[in-house]
UniProtKB/TrEMBL annotation:
One Pfam family cited in the UniProt record for this chain: HTH_18
Gene3D superfamilies: Homeodomain-like (1.10.10.60)
Higher taxonomy: Bacteria, Pseudomonadati, Bacteroidota, Sphingobacteriia, Sphingobacteriales
Record carries keyword Transcription regulation: yes
Extent of the signal sequence: none
Name under which the protein is recorded: Helix-turn-helix domain-containing protein
Species of the source: Pedobacter ginsengiterrae
Domain of life: Bacteria
Annotated HTH araC/xylS-type domain residues: 196-297
InterPro entries reported in the protein's UniProt record: Homeodomain-like_sf, HTH_AraC, Tscrpt_reg_AraC-type_HTH
Length: 298
């Protein structure tokens, strides 16, 4: 997979798969009707969502492979690179692809909320796995967008297309929430491992060498992307991963405050704070008292 093909526009992608461009900024493609595709890596300049319905090769994202099966949604955002390593020189995919350029949604409510759809930052192996009924909902959303693309463009076209893309993405949020619950065999023990790793972090010299613990550090430890890990912890605990870490940090700080043989500055450095005043400010915001006030009260 040495060659990298840059696709800067929706029409670039349509040309690559042998499909007509009905709208310069958005497209819905029936992949079974596209031409066979070669072994290559693609750099996307637009949003792309694949509904893969059969296994047609190993999908590579970064250094990771995802062996996808039926009824899987894979999300790609502008600037990402995706590669297919098929069994053979060419392969014929089956499923659908929705592509849309950021210019399509610019100035719309959807553009203001795109950062809410964290799944565009998930790794490919964290793809959305659909039930049959969920798949039908997704295909229906694609069909509504395709219907608008095949009509003559009028003053309502953009609003209806963008509204249906937003509806589709909101369904994906719902389905991911369901996946966090139902895929126990994949997620089993993540919270327990996180808690264990968090305790190990503070019992080691990592706070002094690495500083305050970060969400990305624990996500890497658990082989998850930071966004997927954060969303999973939020679903499990009601707190963001950062809030969970902060809560653990303050609980530990309160315990250490009771050790009067150590100054507040020493405790701050032990916990990973670079500056004692930063620790004092965080402690007061969390507990309601400064470290010295809390020590006096107790």
């Amino acid at each position: 997979m040495d060659n990298l093909v840059r696709l800067n526009s929706v029409s670039d992608y349509n040309k690559r798969v042998g499909q007509e461009t009905l709208h310069p900024l958005v497209s819905v493609i029936d992949l079974s009707k596209s031409k066979p595709l070669p072994h290559e890596r693609l750099h996307f300049g637009f949003y792309t969502i694949y509904l893969k319905e059969i296994k047609c090769g190993d999908l590579k994202y970064g250094c990771n492979y995802y062996d996808y099966q039926e009824g899987t949604l894979v999300f790609v955002s502008p600037g990402q690179v995706l590669g297919i390593e098929p069994n053979g020189e060419y392969y014929q995919p089956k499923g659908y692809a929705l592509t849309f350029h950021p210019d399509l949604i610019r100035g719309t409510a959807l553009a203001r909320h795109m950062n809410d759809y964290n799944f565009f930052s998930y790794e490919v192996f964290e793809a959305l796995h659909l039930s049959e009924s969920e798949r039908n909902v997704i295909v229906d959303c694609f069909s509504k967008i395709d219907f608008e693309l095949k009509r003559p463009i009028d003053k309502h076209s953009k609003t209806l297309i963008v509204t249906n893309i937003e509806l589709f993405l909101n369904y994906c949020l719902r389905f991911y929430d369901r996946q966090f619950i139902t895929r126990d065999h994949v997620h089993k023990g993540i919270l327990e491992k996180f808690e264990h790793n968090l305790n190990d972090y503070f019992q080691s010299d990592k706070p002094k060498t690495l500083g305050l613990p970060s969400v990305s550090f624990f996500a890497d430890e658990l082989n998850l992307s930071a966004n997927y890990f954060g969303d999973l912890i939020k679903k499990e605990t009601g707190k963001s991963a950062q809030e969970y870490i902060q809560s653990k940090l303050m609980d530990l700080a309160k315990e250490k405050i009771f050790d009067t043989s150590k100054s507040v500055s020493e405790i701050a450095y032990e916990l990973g704070f670079k500056y004692p005043q930063h620790f004092s400010r965080s402690f007061k915001q969390s507990v309601g008292y400064s470290p010295n006030e809390y020590r006096m009260l107790n």
